[in-house]
TrEMBL record:
Family membership: Belongs to the 3-hydroxyacyl-CoA dehydrogenase family.
NCBIfam families: PRK08293.1 (NF006143)
Native organism: Micrococcus flavus
Gene3D superfamilies on file: N-(1-d-carboxylethyl)-l-norvaline Dehydrogenase, domain 2 (1.10.1040.10), NAD(P)-binding Rossmann-like Domain (3.40.50.720)
Protein name, per record: 3-hydroxybutyryl-CoA dehydrogenase
Length: 306
């Protein structure tokens, strides 16, 4: 059993809110941080959204335990208050290197000497912003998959500066919060999961951005020909448009930048995937796919008719 009981999560978006609940549901004392109280006020709605999935996906789901988890979570928009007693800080903010450096500098200046520092970055190398923390020896990555309660991998990846004792400690912590601990032995962007997933998603995005086929048709080909349960655009809806946008927007590849701009349209409209009830597909309150949103079809998009 580790001593990592008091958990602070930075970022309360689609994945951050899932991390908060995952830790709280498994008995950790969780503090949720975000930049404003208005953002934090959206958390109860996210918890209720997750409750339906927990109920559906976990055979041993305990309603009372879920309620206790919600009651145990505290929130704050004050960084010093958020980390004052933290045993571990988990950062789940957008994939923007400058933003991560800025936030980690503030966290690092305020954390106690014993606090373990974890990033959930999905595409950046932790070593590219380890020094910003001021404590690179206790900084490393713990990467969560979306729909954590079900897709419960915990990829643990250190940098060259990480003290090995923290690598072992975080593997054990991952198990304590219901994850399958996955030791990643060499620092690579994307860990194991995203090293496999991102090229596949990128191939789907390129087909659409280059107007080869519509999202639903691309997904249908993949599902039918491979027997896979979901195609790339169904996965984009699961991951959420914001994550994919930040990964693609500054790419050297013009096709990836073009796809980022397409995602930006959905973000601006508030249709960012399952969490919003609508992305490339529409969803009911239980997250069931109701069918493709035809506005995304190539023939329906402005300037592409004919």
């Amino acid at each position: 059993m580790t001593t990592l009981q008091k958990v602070t999560v930075f970022g309360t978006g689609v994945l951050g809110s899932q991390i908060i609940m995952q830790a709280a549901y498994h008995g950790k004392d969780v503090t949720a941080y975000d930049i404003t109280d208005e953002v934090l006020a959206k958390l109860p709605e996210r918890y209720e959204w997750m409750r339906g999935f927990y109920r559906r996906d976990l055979p041993d789901f305990d309603e009372a335990r879920f309620d206790r988890a919600i009651e145990s979570i505290t929130t704050t928009s004050d960084i010093e208050q958020a980390v004052a007693d933290a045993d571990v800080v988990i950062e789940a903010i957008p994939e923007d290197l400058d933003l991560k450096k800025s936030v980690w500098a503030k966290i690092g200046a305020a954390v106690p000497e014993h606090t373990v520092l974890l990033t959930n970055t999905s595409s950046l190398l932790p070593s590219s912003f380890a020094d910003a923390t001021g404590h690179p020896e206790r900084f490393l990555a713990l990467h969560f998959a979306n729909f954590i309660w079900k897709n419960n991998t915990g990829e643990v990846m250190a940098t060259a500066q990480t003290d090995p004792k923290y690598f072992d400690m975080v593997l054990e912590f991952s198990d304590e919060i219901g994850l399958l601990p996955v030791p990643v032995r060499k620092e690579v962007p994307g860990y194991v999961l995203n090293s496999l997933l991102i090229p596949w998603l990128g191939a789907g995005a390129a087909l659409y951005a280059n107007e080869v086929a519509n999202p639903a048709d691309i997904d249908n080909v993949w599902r039918t020909a491979t027997g896979a349960p979901r195609g790339p655009f169904e996965v984009y809806d699961t991951v959420g448009f914001n994550v994919a946008y930040h990964i693609n927007k500054n790419s050297d590849d013009p096709t990836k930048r073009k796809f980022a701009e397409i995602l930006r349209e959905g973000i601006d409209a508030g249709t960012t995937g399952i969490g919003a009830g609508k992305g490339f597909y529409s969803y009911d309150k239980d997250g069931n796919n109701l069918g493709p949103v035809e506005d995304w079809n190539i023939e329906n998009r402005k300037g592409t008719q004919g």
